[in-house]
Amino acid sequence: MYNIIKQSHSGIMWLVIVMLVLSVIFGLIKTLKKEETASAHWYKFFYYTKWLMYIQALLGITLMFISPLVHYSDGFMKNEQLRFYGMEHPLMMLIAVGLVSIGLYKSKKKSSTIKKNRSITIYYFVALVIMLLMIPWQTVMQ
Ligand code: HEM
To answer: 10-29 pLDDT, tens per residue?
Structure first.
């Protein structure tokens, strides 16, 4: 059970990165081209990206309860690995998921397509940067 969830969490990471990068690239192109007409296809893509991050977060939250790397013993904050998996990684990743949710929600409220695309581009970009910084690359690249 633990290995299946951990492997899924690790594998889905690549899909999340690809979808976030594509969301930022196409959001930026649409913003710079000042596109007036909204594209239903891309809106769906931005939407699926958000839902995939929700699934990734759910797997992560599950790992919080079963991972041997997460235990809040005395002094866990002084231990780099326990601090990372027990607090830094979960907290920052949840912030990244929150930013993507806010970005999509705010874009719906915007009056023009240009403003909608700009909102998506900015929030998804900041979420992408946070996520890339908080991925345990040394573990992933092993
Ligand atoms: C949404 C974006 C997220 C990404 C891209 C991500 C990515 C990763 C990656 C690549 C690993 C290493 C897996 C391995 O060692 O093979 C990992 C581990 C872990 N993640 Fe996430 N994570 C995300 C969100 C979360 C969230 C929201 C939580 C908790 C609330 C979380 C909790 C954990 C835990 C506890 C581990 C350690 C698992 C273990 O090695 O036992 N993650 N994450």
So the answer is: 999 999 999 999 999 999 99
Tally of helices (H runs) and strands (E runs) in the chain: 6, 0
Distance 71 CA to ligand 1 centre (A): 15
Indicate the pTM of the whole model: 0.91
Structurally, how many domains does the chain consist of?
Answer: 1
Residue of 3, 4, 8, 9 best suited for mutating to test ligand 1, as the one with most atoms within 8 Å of CB: 9
We report the CATH number of the domain holding residue 60 as 1.20.120
Domain residue limits at 99:
2-140
Contact 84, 136 (CB under 8 A): yes
Atom number in ligand 1 closest to CA 69: 41
